[in-house]
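Students often ask why we bother predicting the structure of a whole assembly rather than each chain alone. The short answer is interfaces. A chain on its own may look different once its partners are present, and contacts between molecules only exist in the joint model. In this exercise we take two input lines together and write out one structure for the complete complex. Read the inputs first and try to guess which parts will touch.
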Amino acid sequence: MSCITRCPRKNGPGLIIQALRNLSQELGYFIDSEKGRQQLVLNRALCGNILNYGYCVYPRTFHYSDHPENGPVGKLIEDNLEAVHKRVGSNLDGEGPGILRKIPQSDLDELKRIFDVTGATERMEKIETISKKRAKELGLSDEEYCRQIFTINSEEHYI
Amino acid sequence: MIVEGKKKIWSEYQKDIPDDHYFYVRSCIRQNFFPASEKVFLDIVRDRLGLDFFETPHHTTCGGIAYHSDSIPQETLMTIVARQFALMTEAGYENYVCSCITSFGIYNEIINTWFHYPELEAKIRELLWEASKREFKIPKSVVHASDVIYKLRNKILENGKYRLVNKNTGEPLRVVEHIGCHYSKMFPSKGVGGAEYPYVLTGMAEAWGGTVIDYPERRHCCGFGFRQYLVQANRGYSLSNTHKKFESMAPFKPDMIITNCPGCPYFLDRWQYVIEELEGKTYGADSKGIPVFTYEEVAGLVLGYDPWDLGLQMHQTAVEPLLDKIGITYNKEDKYKI
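Now the answer. The structure tokens for the assembled complex follow.
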């Protein structure tokens, strides 16, 4: 953590925050805070990318509509994804090594087993279950609930 | 000044960067947004300098972004990393080089944690075996790819076609160097120059003819902050960090920014566009932005690569002002040709 550099005793308060966030997920408390509820969309995006493609960030799931700050160049890249990546030497979804290669299914299967034996799968399922219950209580569809927690900042909570 | 004393102190800020024989792992962010940077890196070290950099298609994300966004437990992260180390071990390598700064911090954090808590390392070895029947050795050396280019900076200059010099004035270009937070703030001894005097990018900029400018928010974060950017509702925090940096550096009139983290150039590039759209404000000369580069892109420019082969058309903030200052020849019509 960057905070360690500035602490005369080399403490890492960022790690304490991380531990508390983990605890709030284990105990289900995350659902009662605006920033905690965001965990659902983070999990779906990041864990989904890891388990389906082997990357934390993957271009076919990184949509311009969710990232307008990417600007007109970002829109051009999305609209011409294969051609742009071919032009600069990527191996997008191709066999063998290289930039954005297709990661073999056997490796993705290993990642899934790692998720299973280390508790990540269980945690993801817990976040899903509790979040779905909250969406139902609010009378929102899954899509409406996700859009709400992804976009709405009440300006009453700060990171 | 006692020169010998200064040399002794500075020697404590150096790190060992092996000459050759590396196991190379890619960066999720760099592959998505600056893909040609990884291509030119391997082109320089393998094809131009004849070094051994091995890559296996079986390596994956390290999981760092998910870990820092609280999406996966520490044990999951450690086991994914242990798998990467197993791939290195199976390939017969001991030197590990990564393209990503988040990964670099993750690797150092994990190795350090295992050093202090060997029982945790033993647990991760069991979990990896359970999941994949793999075993691993801890790398003898973990370096970031920018460390390698830093080490090779003078060779790159020797083979270079251009220098970071204004062709019209003959003056060195004014360079902002932006170090990724997880390069040396987490473990200062793991970065060239430590956390207070990081020299990895300054060394490149100065060797290639530029002059590095100092400004109050030089060590400020770009603002990525993982969940601060990944969730749209939080992005104001990410943007405000970049805004703070640009407000601080602008009076010093930088010609360019060079970065070593894959995320930082994305944010320093894209948020300039957003600030211009929101406030009509630009930070470079002639109402333009300040071009932002990866260190591989700058090395490529020095070596005379075509800017569009380096993927500079994938930047939102136009790079042409810098190309024109150096006198790099390029074809405008080819920029978006696909």
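Check your guess against this: The beta strands of chain B are 22-25, 53-54, 95-98, 141-144, 174-178, 211-212, 256-259, 292-294.
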